[in-house]
Amino acid sequence: MKKAIFVDRDGTLIAEPADEQIDSLEKLEFVPGAISGMKALTGLGFEIVMASNQDGLGTASFPWETYKPAHDKMLKTLAGEGVVFDDELIDRSFPEDNAPTRKPRTGMFGKYLDGSYDMASSFVIGDRDTDMQLAANLGARGLRLGELSWEQVVEEIRSSARSAKVARKTGETDILVCIDLDGKGGSCIDSGLKFLDHMLDQLVHHGGVSLTVRCKGDLEVDEHHTMEDIGIALGEAVREALGDKRGIERYGFALPMDESAALVLLDFGGRSDLVWDVEFTREYVGDVPTEMFKHFFKSFCDAARCNLRVEARGENNHHIAEAVFKAFARSIRQAARRNVFSYELPSSKGLL
């Protein structure tokens, strides 16, 4: 689902003068930290939306020709730093009009409330009570400038932005996957395959993520579609949650488990490939066919656009599978680890 950051203008991006009307270039002054803060919020997977009340804009008391030069200069300055708004929502009514479009009312936010946006994972940044009331009305999280600095606002969003929800419904499966790479929130796994649930639970305990997986699949046919489609949905969710990958470690784990040992090498480099060198001696472990583990990881790789090399040896097939998933979980944890103050891509190409 899509997510958005709704940013107030006056008092949040640019300083608000005593007469509360920025009607000349001389009055244009950015709030300290606003430009660098907005730059730091780009590339996180959010749509960036400006939302502002501009009392009487277009009337004799506030003509367009006095509003536009300062507004355009602000947009040009931000664009020079790579900040371009996906949408601009400007209400021009007066407070006494009680217009449904005036913040904190939600009349001009219609398309963001049609169910295609995850408002619980979206944010409102503003400096007034009305902005925080807008956040409550939208079902989003409000961050108030003044109580927080721009640096703190950025840290709050960047440290909580790495989550994703993927719903995948076909004629064979109906799947919901929710993941938070930083482990915020609860976890619930019900794939329809008990041993696969046990393996996916390793991502929670050893990967440091929170994970919800719910699947209704055609298990009366066989296990193939369930494991394939969960691998696809999980890969899509991880790719979405990583955002633009700025500041991540990128690479990630070898570990023993009893008599078994597993090596999982991971690269979130944007290309898909799987090398699989795992030997099972049984057709099933629990209710999962052992041949399907390779297909699960291949589906994940293709959807997550990552390279994965998996090697494992052992005597007990349960231990082999569990060692692989534990090492996989640790690889994700290591590769997805991020410095929230680093905006660098871990690539000499400048693109992942």
What do these coordinates show?
The chain is an alpha/beta fold and 352 residues long. 32% of the residues lie in helices and 23% in strands. It has helices at residues 34-41, 64-79, 129-138, 150-160, 194-207, 224-242, 291-304, 317-336, and strands at residues 3-7, 46-53, 87-91, 123-126, 141-144, 163-169, 173-180, 188-190, 210-217, 254-257, 260-267, 273-278, 284-285, 288-289, 307-313. The strands form 4 sheets. It has a 5-stranded parallel sheet with strand order 3-2-1-4-5, with helices on one face. Strand 2, helix 2 (64-79) and strand 3 form a beta-alpha-beta unit. Helix 1 packs parallel to helix 4 (150-160), helix 5 (194-207) packs parallel to helix 8 and helix 6 runs parallel beside helix 7 (291-304). The longest helix has 20 residues, at 317-336. The radius of gyration is 24 Å and the shape is elongated.
Q: In short, what is this structure?
A:
It contains 8 helices and 15 strands.
Mean pLDDT: 92
Strand tally is 15
Rg, rounded, reads 24 Å
- Spatial sequence of strands, sheet with the most strands: 3-2-1-4-5
- For the terminal residues, how far apart are their CA atoms? 21 Å
* Major sheet attributes: 5 strands, parallel
Helix content: 25-40%
What oligomeric state do the depicted chains represent? single chain
Order of helices and strands: EHEHEEHEHEEEHEHEEEEEHEH
- Roughly what fraction of the amino acids lie in strands? 15-25%
